[in-house]
Amino acid sequence: MAFMQCLEMHPSREMTVDEFKAWLQQFDTNHDGQISRRELNNALHSMRTWFAWWKARQAMKAADVNHDGRIDNGMEIEKLFNYAQQRLHMKICQSDW
């Protein structure tokens, strides 16, 4: 069937914690070690997530503890893990067997 050749494969939503961090860091465009809402939006958009802008906003509300507009410390990263697992249906495991 000809239309099957046009479909793109979606990235896997199963990853380890280290892979999740590495995946986020590739969207850190200004290389400051922090993830802004715009960078998070780009990351979610890369996974073909519907309404990525809205989900990025919701993730920032859930994870940004100090309300500075950035995910920048371990506690905020952990909250982002939890949000990604619960709301974005990503599977993030602790270790890679």
From TrEMBL:
Any Pfam family the entry gives: EF-hand_5
Domain EF-hand: residue ranges: 15-50
Gene3D superfamilies: EF-hand (1.10.238.10)
Keywords tagged on the record: Calcium, Repeat
PROSITE patterns xrefs: EF_HAND_1, EF_HAND_2
Listed InterPro entries: Centrin_CML-like, EF-hand-dom_pair, EF_Hand_1_Ca_BS, EF_hand_dom
Secretion signal, residue range per the UniProt entry: none
An MF annotation (GO) of this entry: calcium ion binding
Top-level taxon: Eukaryota
PANTHER family hit by this protein: CALCIUM BINDING PROTEIN
Protein name: EF-hand domain-containing protein
Organism name: Rubroshorea leprosula
